[in-house]
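Minutes, project huddle
Topic: does the predicted pose make sense with S-adenosylmethionine bound?
PN asked that the exact inputs be recorded in the minutes so nobody has to dig through chat later. Recorded below.
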Amino acid sequence: MSLLDYFSKDGFRREEFVFDTIAPVYDFITMFATMKYSKAINQLRKHLPIGGASVLDVGCGTGQWARLFKELGATRVVGIDLSGRMLARARRSYPDIEFYKVNAVDMRMFEDNSFDIVTASFVLHGPDRYNRNRILSEMIRVARVAVVVHDFDSRPLPFFSRLVENIERSHYRDFQASFLDDLRQFGYGVRKVELRSHLALYILNKRMRVG
Ligand SMILES: C[S@@+](CC[C@H](N)C(=O)[O-])C[C@H]1O[C@@H](n2cnc3c(N)ncnc32)[C@H](O)[C@@H]1O
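Predicted holo structure (tokens), as shared on screen:
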């Protein structure tokens, strides 16, 4: 990959370039955010059992979110990501988790309903709305019980977060404006759990059909 990929119209090439580039320092620069992951997952456990579940983590990066599911007793945890360099770090840190280089818009390597929980942490605010919904529909297809998205809520982001998102050229504003409505359009029960620091858990329950 080269610097030209940062300016590519193909959002996935850009994401791969950005995360390949920052992989060596990713855990350091996100240290304060990832420290809050345990609290978020404890909130999630109030709504969804994790022990004994199989879990697919989409856009797993260096594995910081995926590892919590393993620690809480998930039987099988699989992580997928676009960035080979993020995955290399994840594999080194968490050898008991399976990691694959896959673009989440096409997860045909996984059958329908093949994981109890399919999750994505800080991934879906990145792509544009069209690609976000493609990823979301793949996540819902592969999930048996629930889809869990850990990401921004609709509150305005602080300056530093906006700066990072603008450098990353993410679609966070559109995500904040439209994600909840888009998620509800799949026709399943959706619960939004507000967390501190402009974050939320979005839990789609595949066992609950609505509308
Ligand atoms: C901000 S990082 C979050 C990493 C991890 N989920 C966490 O919470 O620490 C976003 C990750 O999503 C990955 N990603 C973005 N779009 C993707 C796609 N279409 N398919 C797979 N991975 C993707 C990026 O490569 C990056 O590693």
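Observations noted during the meeting:
- The pocket of S-adenosylmethionine is lined by residues 12, 15, 19, 59-61, 64-65, 80-83, 86, 103-105, 121-123, 126, 135 (CB under 6 Å).
- The chain has a mean pLDDT of 95.
No decisions taken; revisit at the next huddle.
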